[in-house]
Amino acid sequence: MKVLVVGAGGREHALCWAIAASPLIERLYCAPGNAGIAGEAECVAIGADDIDALVAFASDTGIEFVVVGPEAPLVAGLADRLGEAGIKVFGPSARAAMLEGSKGFMKDFCARHDIPTAAYGRFTEAGPAKAFIADHGAPIVVKADGLAAGKGVIIAGTVDEANRAVDDMLEGGAFGAAGAEIVIEEFLAGEEASFFALCDGETALALASAQDHKRVGDGDTGPNTGGMGAYSPAPVVTEAMAETVMDEIIRPTIAGMKAEGAPYVGELYAGLMIADGKAKLLEYNVRFGDPECQVLMMRLKSDLLPALLAAADGVLSMFDLRWYDEAALCVVMAADGYPGTYDKGSEIKGLDTAGAMEDVIVFHAGTTSAEDGRVLATGGRVLGVTALGATVEEARQRAYAAVDAIDWPGGFCRRDIGWRAIGR
Fold it and tell me: What is the CATH architecture assignment of 125-180?
């Protein structure tokens, strides 16, 4: 097959790495790709949000299957446009992608279908939002309704902090159009986990569990980011908990979307809060997580491509996946200043040394290749140094040994990825 992967991050590098290993692949493209992806696929200089150009390229090149990595083109209707052009695609329609495209839509959907989630309110004006905050007190969570690259969530420890978040989003335009409406919801205590399922519109197939690290600093301190590291499996997601999540959250969502005329086809990622043996839905994402995808792909024993095709073809009920027993752990290396303002263009050395270590893959996110072959940092999250090990602790030791082999003075990472699992 000729396959096109859309995107340029660590998630897309992991997907390309897995898909490139499939015997079904004749030619693999990635648009736009990055310096690491170029080792797995032919990179095409088309942005992930340039829907017209992506559809034209896929049509002109004879692409038979498109795997969409990021959420923004899905929310904008890329899967719909590819389908209209007769090209098979892995990823939900624009209507189904509203599960991530609008937090308000997701919360209302959960209310309609009795899916456990935090109590909430939706607001477009600061006055009613602040009245809701005053009634409920703090801690409380303020979220931009639309897409904000994982940064549109403020966990406010005080009422004043929550009110400032309301002002910043609704009146200060902190997240642009994404924050023109906000969702305010109760704070849920417990342990977060990431739960993934392949979906074909009727059937959902659970994948391995993972746990992300959203805060920028060690000890889960500082502002939220797109993710500073992850590991799989997550001990908090036991077999019993996984089945509970499927029964109470995932399957009702698939049935509800079908009933509402927007069958969900693609990867469904549930952000969960688990406490006292029960799970509540924090958020839905309509794609693989980043950096969770990196650890999932390292642990996947089966060929990924047939699984994605089975979802697109509606035949997941006859499909299964196998996983390595080993744990995987990913450490994200980010540019100094992230998630705030950061410099671009610094050189990264030592990548070959790190990548040659046993059971280590360095997935690229925000990188590009200079004309002279040097690898330069171009994004906030730049590398996902990922390793396998018999335990989370062993995987962490390997990942950090590889991190230490990378010579990049302009970058930083958290040093405590996997702390919850190791603390057990």
Answer: 2-Layer Sandwich (3.30)
The CATH architecture of the domain made up of 2-91 is 3-Layer(aba) Sandwich (3.40)
Q: What is the pLDDT of residue 159?
A: 95
Q: Around Cβ 60, how many Cβ atoms within 10 Å? A: 8
* Residue 423 pLDDT level (bands cut at 50, 70, 90): confident
- Rounded mean pLDDT, 120-138: 94
Domain boundaries, the chain: 2-91, 125-180, 191-318, 327-423
Residue-wise pLDDT for 322-376, tens only, equals 999 999 999 999 999 999 999 999 999 999 999 999 999 999 999 999 999 999 9
Q: Does domain 327-423 have CATH number 3.10.450.50?
A: no
- The amino acid present at 116, given as its one-letter code, is P
pLDDT at residue 421 greater than cutoff 90: no
* CATH topology for the 191-318 domain: D-amino Acid Aminotransferase; Chain A, domain 1 (3.30.470)
> What pTM does this model have?
0.94
Tell me the pLDDT tens digit for each residue of 37-76.
999 999 999 999 999 999 999 999 999 999 999 999 999 9
